[in-house]
Specification:
This protein is α/β, with parallel strands linked by helices and 279 residues long. Helix content is 42%, strand content 20%. The protein folds into 2 domains: 243 residues, Rossmann fold; 34 residues. The strands form 2 sheets. Strands 6-7-8-3-9-10 form a 6-stranded mixed sheet, sandwiched between helices. The chain has a 4-stranded antiparallel sheet with strand order 2-1-4-5. Strand 9 and strand 10 form a beta hairpin.
Length: 279
């Protein structure tokens, strides 16, 4: 359980990125965090694991008060919080397996990580995770030889290698095509369900969020202005979050695009069947 109470972040410039944000995320729930640029989404994600320091309020992960931890205690606590980044944050020259195993850096002595001598149990778990994200055959490839979708799958496996109690995901589909974006979102949601793992996903694509997450929190100017189910995110709610726009046209265009995508996939399948019949 993640519990955030009265969270405020004021930068040295005097700008308030967060203004008394309060909500809870129970085990297994995946929350989509939406809002316009500058709404405070990234600040919120980074306050939760204290990559930036909150100005006021509290953050509890289970019984642990994250905001009250010393630097040494925080290093240990961060092992309990998995992070998946927009730009993957992989070490390009290392293999897929080595990148996944870097999720254990907070658990093993420095000399073991330096010489890449991880315990056998950690290596076995990394292989299982690569199988779960569909990358077993790529274990020995360098990270820079992978596609964007494959890199994001490595990032997911690395975060899970930590055995986290909370998953923070920052724009996981921003650099991906529509089909790969759906695959990545589906994978994250399925894994959270399997592990009863709570997650917060900072995401710009409203329709993608509505298609996959269980709950949506909308931020505007650092404040929560919507907290509900995807079905409750109607035109009025979208206007509160983003301002006036032709939201009905957006949904219609998305529906038309989805129909075109399905038709293209069906046609490709038929073509493949014809080619196979001729061989």
């Amino acid at each position: 359980m993640l519990r955030i109470t009265g969270l405020t972040k004021t930068y040295k410039t005097g700008d308030k990125a967060l203004k008394g944000v309060t909500f809870e995320v129970p085990p297994g729930q995946v929350v989509g965090l939406i809002g316009p640029s500058g709404a405070g989404k990234s600040s919120l994600i980074r306050c939760i694991n204290r990559l930036i320091e909150p100005s006021e309020g509290s953050i509890h992960l289970g019984a642990l008060d994250v905001t009250g931890l010393s630097r040494g205690e925080l290093r240990k606590a961060r092992r309990r919080i998995g992070m998946i980044f927009q730009e993957y944050a992989l070490v390009e020259r290392l293999t897929v397996m080595e990148n996944v195993l870097s999720g254990r850096l907070g658990y093993v002595p420095f000399w073991q990580s330096f010489f890449r001598r991880y315990p056998a149990d950690d290596v076995a778990k990394a292989f299982r995770l690569l199988g779960r994200v569909g990358l077993t055959e790529h274990a020995d490839k360098r990270a820079d030889a992978l596609s964007g979708g494959q890199r994001q799958r490595v990032g997911i496996a690395r975060a899970l290698e930590q055995d986290p109690e909370l998953l923070l995901v920052d724009e996981p589909t921003a650099s991906l095509d529509p089909k790969t974006s759906r695959q990545i979102m589906r994978l994250i949601v399925e894994i959270c369900r399997e592990r009863d793992l709570p997650a917060i996903i900072n995401i710009h694509d409203v329709l993608l969020a509505q298609a996959f997450v269980q709950r949506i929190i909308g931020l505007r100017a650092g404040e929560v202005v919507f907290d509900g189910t995807p079905e409750e995110l109607d035109t009025a709610a979208l206007t509160r979050i983003y301002g006036e726009e032709d939201w009905a046209a957006m949904h219609k265009q998305a529906s038309d695009d989805e129909v075109e995508e399905r038709e293209a996939a069906t046609e490709a399948k038929r073509l493949g069947e014809r080619v196979a019949a001729l061989v």
